Amino acid sequence: MTITRSDQGKSTLPAAAAGQDRPELHKAIEEIVESGFLGVSLRVHDERGEWVGSAGVAELGGTAKPPVNGHARIGSNTKTFTATLVLQLVAEGKIELDTLAADYLPEFGLDRRITVRMLLQHTSGLFNFTGEVYDDGSIVHGIPVPYSTTGKEWVDNRFHTYRPEELVRLALSKPARFEPGTGWSYANTNYVLARLLIEKVTGRSLAEEMQRLILGPLGLSGTVVPDASPEIPAPHAHIYYCYEEDGQHKTIDITRYNPSWVSTGGDMISTTQDLHTFISALVGGKLLPAALLAEMCTPHATGIPNMDYGLGVFVQKTDCGGAVITHNGGNVGSATLMYSTPDGSKTLTSVLTWVDDAAMSIATAFPNAQQKLVNKVFCGEQADPARPAH
User: Fold this and answer.
1) How much is the pTM?
2) Is residue 254 within 8 Å of 240, Cβ to Cβ?
3) Does pLDDT of 55 surpass 50?
4) Which of 162, 210, 262, 343 is least enclosed, having the fewest CB within 10 Å?
């Protein structure tokens, strides 16, 4: 069966989706669950219309499938929303991409070679406040995160509130990875500075500006800028964390936690429907002038095979030779995928949930799951989902 049905046996999907028979998509999400995930919900828009489905369970011990349009923490997809907002303010004449970030935010003593563009592009060289792994394998910790040796500390303090300025100052207390503009390194710090920049030049909160320029105009009623609130609207799947204490393995529900530890690096909440609406509007030119959209999607080398970075988006080559505009967001216990062809004619949005742990036990299965979905949707049956990327 390719659609989710309620206990009453009535279809919970729009007629357009319910009328489609897409066994290859249903099989793909079932196989992902079998590889170790709790649940998967998937939404595809393409030349055949819309398809929505889910597999697995919404919570441990339950039988209900994940809601097909449930709310989820979207992780680093937050960066795409934030970059879009900065570029909209560029269009309004309030920010200039190649102006020094220190001119807007003098209170931090930023390196005066760092521009706004470098923040959005991850070429500032700033230390990532969630920690850095260096080429020699050494790790420098920032704030406690759910992984490595700080996992239990993160669990115990998961309702603690961090302010954005605090995260930035922590990052600035650590050595930069490289001189501004001389390399590429993914750092949540860049996007917390982008948030502070937005709030400085507008005099309003990030949430207010997001509502004014993106959420309101697109009608994204399922999308939330939570700041420090641990709440997530219903319906939603649950997420979990497993850790060892006194020789015993414990699994706890961490669906509620304070997302301020990652701030604008990945704190937003949305739905697969809202993410489809957002990414298709973005690449379709409804949010940015053509010139700024072109700058956003201009790829800059990252050193990651087949993955270049623009301004708040990855430009990824597919196994079948095409390209997709994407970001995706991994969060503790969940991930949210967002992909679109450059013209917006085909999109994939998805939520995956699992029982997480400090060792990141899902680390191998997750890229395989991503690749499976991308190949099914953007490459049809030509690509082998098990074949690694070139």
Assistant:
1) 0.92
2) yes
3) yes
4) 343
